[in-house]
Amino acid sequence: MTDKPLKVAILCHSDNMGGAAVVTMRLHNALRREGVDSRMVVFTQNNPGSDVTIISNRFKRGFYFVRERFEIFMNNGMSRDNLFKVSTASCGPDIMSNAVVRNADVVVLSWVNQGMLSLNQLDRLLKSGKPVVWMMHDMWNMTGICHHALECRNYVDPGECGRCQFLSSDRPDDLSHKVWKKKNEIYRNATNLQFVAVSNWSRRKAAESSLMKDMPVETIFNPFPIDSFDTRFPEGYEPSIISHDRKVIAMGAARLDQPIKGLPYAIEALNYLFDNNPELCNNAEAVFFGDLRNPDALADLRFPHRYVGRISDPLILRRLYTRSSVVLSSSLYETLPGTLIEGQASGALAVSFGEGGQDDIIEHKKNGYIARYLDTKDLAEGIEWALSQNQDVDALHESVRERFGSEAVARRYIELFNRMLHRNG
Fold first, then answer.
1. Which domain holds residue 175?
2. Peptide bond connecting 5 to the previous residue in cis, omega within 30 degrees of 0
3. One domain, residues 291 and 349
4. Domain holding 252: CATH number?
5. Same domain, yes or no, for 247 and 269?
6. CB-CB contact of 310 with 331 (8 Å)
7. Which helix (H) or strand (E) holds 195?
8. Is the same domain home to 260 and 395?
C-alpha cells in the first residue's frame, strides 16, 4: 500500500499572464513532476487544463474586480494614475466553497490581488486549520495597500501606513491604514501561515515592516526552466532580430517604459558609452524587447540599438539570450529579476542596479556587475566590464541551475509543506 500523494492547491490570479503567473505555473508543473497532486485555482484562465480550474463565474469575477478598483478610485482623488499600483483585497469569491481548496492538504497563495482573494476569505482560510504558504512576489504582503513602496517608509516598524503617496493622501487614517489594520489583525491570529520570500531582499524588507516583523518568512527562489536555455548558438537557426557581427546587450521587460523599469537610466548609461568609448560602440549593439507604450521612448538613445517589440516565441527569446554577451536591467526595484537569471542561464553576464533581489543572482565582478544605485556612469562601467570578459558559459549555466532550477525549487517547497504538516499533526 502506497502513501497518497500530497494534495496542494495553488491560488493565483492568472495561469499565464504576468511574471508571477508564469513562475507559479512553473512551480505547479515542477511539483507535479515530483509526484505532488498539485492543482491551480485561478481568476483568469487562458490555457484550459484538468489541473487548472477557474474560481466563480465571469459575472461575479468582473463585479469583484470593478468594485475594488472603484473603491480605490474614490479614495485617490478619482485619479487613474495609480489605480493599479495598490490593492485592498476588499472583496472576492468564496474560496472555501471551491472543492480543490477544500480537499487540499496545503494551500499556496501566489499573486492573489485584483478580486481573487479578499482579506475576509483569507481569514476564513486560515481559520480552517489548513497550512497556508504565501509567496511574496512584491511588497503587498508587508504594506497597507501598495505593491511597491518605492521610497516610502510608512510601512516600516513602527509605522502603520497612512498618508499614502498612491492615494495622494495626507490623512493618517486613510484607506491604506485601514487595510493595514485588517491585515495586522489577521496576521496576529494566524498560527498556520508561512510566508515565502522569492529573494533575500524581499525577506529583509519584510523583517523591517510593522506587519511582518514577527511573521515566519523563508526564502525560496522562483523556479526557472534552466535546462531549456542554451549556452551555444546552434547552427542553421538565425532569427533576423539577432545581430551576428556585434556583441549584443539584451534588455527586456513586459513593458519596457514602465517607470519602475528605469529605462531612462539604461539610455543614459549607453549614451555615456557612446560618447566616451566609440570603439566599443563599433562592436556592440543593444537589443530591446517588450512592449513600449511611448513609441518615442528610445528616441534619445545614440548607442547602436534595435527595438524588436514583444517576443512571443520562446525559442527566439532563448536564441537572443544565447547570442547576448550582456543582459542589462536598470530597474529601480526588482524582487527577483527573471531576465537576469535567464540571461545567465544562456551564458550572458548580468549588469544591474542592486535594489532588489539582484544580489541573489549576481556575484559582483564574477558572474555580473552590480552598479551603484541610480549611478548611470557606474552602470556604463558595468556594461563595459562585462563586454570585456571571457566567461565560462557552462560553469555559469550550471551555477544558475543549482540555485534556480525548477526541480531544486520544487523540492524545497515539498520540504516546507511536510514540515508544516508535521507541525500541524
1. 7-223+405-424
2. no
3. yes
4. 3.40.50.2000
5. yes
6. no
7. strand 193-197
8. yes
CA 129 to chain centre: 28
CA distance 216 to 202: 13
User: Do 218 and 236 have their domain in common?
Assistant: no
CA 388 distance to own-chain centroid: 30
In 3D space, the residue among 144, 107, 18, 118 whose CA is nearest the CA of residue 63 turns out to be: 118
Cell of residue 238, nine digits: 538565425
Domain tally, the chain: 2
| DSSP reduced 3-state for 152 | coil
Same domain? For 203 and 262 the reply is no
Residues constituting the chain: 425
Residues in a beta bridge with 252: 289
Answer whether 331's CB lies under 8 Å from 261's CB: yes
Which H or E run includes 224?
none
Do residues 194 and 245 both lie within one domain?
no
CB under 8 Å to 22, separation ≥6 — which residues? 16, 338
Q: What is the DSSP string of 109-150?
A: E-S-TTTT--HHHHHHHHHTT--EEEEESSSGGGSSSBS--T
Instruction: Please give the chain's pLDDT, 425 residues, in tens.
Output: 357 899 999 999 999 888 899 999 999 999 999 999 999 999 999 887 789 999 988 899 999 999 999 999 999 999 998 999 999 999 999 999 999 999 999 999 999 999 999 999 999 999 999 999 999 999 999 999 999 999 999 999 999 999 999 999 999 999 999 999 999 999 999 999 999 999 999 999 999 999 999 999 999 999 999 999 999 876 655 666 676 789 999 999 989 999 999 999 999 999 999 999 999 999 999 999 999 999 999 999 999 999 999 998 888 999 999 999 999 999 999 999 999 999 999 999 999 999 999 999 999 999 999 999 999 999 999 999 999 999 899 999 999 999 999 999 999 999 999 999 998 77
Which of 76, 126, 90 has the alpha carbon at shortest distance from 106?
126
Q: Structure pTM?
A: 0.91
312 contacts: CB under 8 Å, gap ≥ 6: none
